[in-house]
Amino acid sequence: xxxxxxxxxxxxxxxxxxxxxxxxxxxxxxxxxxxxxxxxxxxxxxxxxxxxxxxxxxxxxxxxxxxxxxxxxxxxxxxxxxxxxxxxxxxxxxxxxxxxxxxxxxxxxxxxxxxxxxxxxxxxxxxxxxxxxxxxxxxxxxxxxxxxxx
Length: 150
Known about the structure:
The chain is α+β, with helices and mostly antiparallel strands. Helices cover 21% and strands 40% of the residues. The longest helix has 13 residues, at 50-62.
C-alpha cells in the first residue's frame, strides 16, 4: 500500500525517549512535515510487533537502542491536499527506558538530524510537529501513564 494517498490509515509507532528533562527528537527529511522536529518513528511493517517496530525506528533514526516500557499515547495525523487525504497515520507512542540506552547518537533513515531538546522548549518552537507538541504538552501537564500491550 502506498503511504501517499492511502486507501486506509497506516499503523505507525513513535519512539519516545526522555532523559534529564529532555526528549529525543529527529528532524524529518521527508514528507509529511519535512524539515520539522518530531518523535522518531514510522510505519509498522507486516508481522512486526508494536514494540519491535518502535525499537527498530529508534535505532534507524537515532542510532540508539533502548528497551520499551509501554504505550503512553495514541494519536492520528491526517494531511489533506486538494480535498484528498495525502497521508493518514494512526500513531502508537511507546516510551523507552532511559536507563537502558546504548549506542551513539546519529541521524539515519528518514532523519536528517537528531537532538535532545528540553521538554519546555519543544512547546515554544515553531519547527516542531503538532502531534509532537500535543504529546509533550500532555507529558508536561499530566505526567506519563504507561499502558502495557496484551
